[in-house]
Design a protein that fits this description.
single chain, 115 residues, alpha+beta, 2,3-Dihydroxybiphenyl 1,2-Dioxygenase, domain 1, 17% helix, Glyas_Bleomycin-R_OHBP_Dase, Glyas_Fos-R_dOase_dom
């Protein structure tokens, strides 16, 4: 299993305002699904943040997204370790397979792979 990228998920009810603010820091919009917008550094595209109003399909808001090469292998490992899976593995219509797990301190992590 390997990590491909890590993205903080910032809650916002006013995504345009957040986009403008993070634009001042050098970020540019690279994706907008209406409920989640991803901003990235033009020079370092893997340097990203996501601005989320509410998750489109999950009942909880993830604080952090971790893209991995094999989401099902990671799911099996966290289940075997007894971690709290708060949203089961699911194929989403926007092209990812993901699940949410709570870390020991309560942070909700969205673990995903692109299909």
């Amino acid at each position: 299993m390997s990590v491909r990228r890590v993205v903080p998920n910032i809650r916002s009810s006013e995504q345009a305002r957040s986009r403008d603010f993070y634009g001042l820091l050098g970020f540019e919009e690279v994706m907008d699904l209406g409920w989640v917008m991803t901003l990235a550094s033009p020079e370092q595209p893997a340097e990203q943040i996501s601005v989320v109003s509410q998750d489109a399909s999950a009942p909880v808001h993830p604080d952090l997204s971790v893209e991995v090469d094999d989401v099902d292998a990671v799911h099996a490992a966290v289940v075997a370790a007894g971690a709290d899976v708060v949203f089961p593995p699911r194929d989403e219509e926007w092209g990812v397979r993901r699940f949410f797990v709570r870390d020991p301190d309560g942070t909700v992590v969205n673990v995903l792979s692109h299909r």
